[in-house]
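I have a small job for you when you get a moment. Would you make up a two-line entry for one protein for me to read? No commentary is needed, just the two lines. Write everything out right here, beneath this request.
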Amino acid sequence: MSGYLTSKNKSDCVACGACEQVCTCSAITMRIDEYGFLYPVIDHEKCISCNRCVEICLFEADLKKHKGPLYS
């Protein structure tokens, strides 16, 4: 499973902003698209490729890891 950060498919993002909050380089900002929805935008000049954003994103990670034993 992949999320918006890797797929760029807007349906893979719930605009929670976790990726923006975890980024220590301020490389991610939440911006409004043409329909008024927020999506993360990565400034690749600031990004150090630490992958903290990918690790924090529920849609980037394996859902079983986050939902616990009920969904195993």
